Amino acid sequence: xxxxxxxxxxxxxxxxxxxxAPISRAFKKHNFVRHTIVHTGQHYDDNMSSVFFEExxxxxxxxxxEIGSTSHAVQTGRMLEQLESWFLLxxxxxxxxxxxxxxxxxxxxxxxxxxxxxxxxxxGLRSFNRSMPEEVNRVATxxxxxxxxxxxxxxIVNLKAENLASRAVFCGDVxxxxxxxxxxxxxxSLPFLSKSEDEYGLLTLHRPSNTEVDVLLxxxxxxxELAQNSMPLIFPVHPRTRKILNAxxxxxxxxxxxxxxxxxxxxxxxxxxxxxxxTDSGGLQKEAAFLGTQCxxxxxxxxxxxxxxxxxxxxxxTEREKIGxxxxxxxxxxxxxxxxxxxxxxxIFGPGDAAVKITDDLIAFVAQRQDN
Length: 372
Fold this sequence. Notes:
The protein has helices spanning 14-27, 50-56, 72-90, 102-113, 133-144, 153-161, 174-189, 213-229, 239-248, 264-273, 282-290, 305-309, 320-332, 339-349, 354-371; strands at 5-11, 33-39, 63-64, 94-98, 118-121, 147-150, 168-170, 201-204, 233-236, 256-259, 276-279, 294-297, 313-315. It is an alpha/beta fold.
């Protein structure tokens, strides 16, 4: 019989709540585990209203530190200070961190320095581009964590190269669990989105490198012309991007339809029914793969190289010619993802049981440390 355990998850941004949801559900099956959710408040996000939690069946945070958006150093420093005092007061048996945000790094350092075991979900990812703050956060977190839960075989290879294999467990991807759960919710709660006869693509742009005026405007102009020749693009616009578009009064044709940011379930249905997704987001590349939709990634590198190897994602940067070639190539293939490819996705990312594997292993890991 297990003795009582207190496990704390620290999150700071909306995508982390999505990853947390399947973990939280899996912990509920173990009545000796008290699972506390600490939200650093790294991102103040209107999309994280009460609807977000209800809609996705995500537990609300037990604690909100309300740090807010500032420079990387100030934000990380404030989190370190507040998390350390919270950990000292509440003495968790383990701290769980997710992904690669400043909240991930701050929680990891705060816990590790006072000898609380740290486990990192979504470990082992590498873009090999150290100019991305996320890459610095990932590498540092992996090296300071005691247990690394790795979503893909490629992640294991990366950790072996950094001599971290002994801490690593391949478990599949919690985002797969989240998408499988959420798409079922979406199909029952949003039947009106289930199928539109019109073909469309979905476009998202949010990376700072793509939303600077001198990159964004030519990129959108090129996408607009491509869309006029193939299919309209639905473009949920990030507030930062909308400011630029409003200031520039850039006139796009009807082929690019600007809409407000979509709630998560709406977004999933829009991805599922799109012919193609064009994005610079990391998470969306995978969501497209899990939902059987082809993806064109408007970046120079990706952490999800497996989706490239499977032929369901094309890495094209922001050059018009490369984007156009990818659109034409997909049109010739009729945009569909083969069932054999979906079976490969199960092998690489798991069939949607990552959270159960992680929580079972984590409980055993903590129990062993309690016994020693």
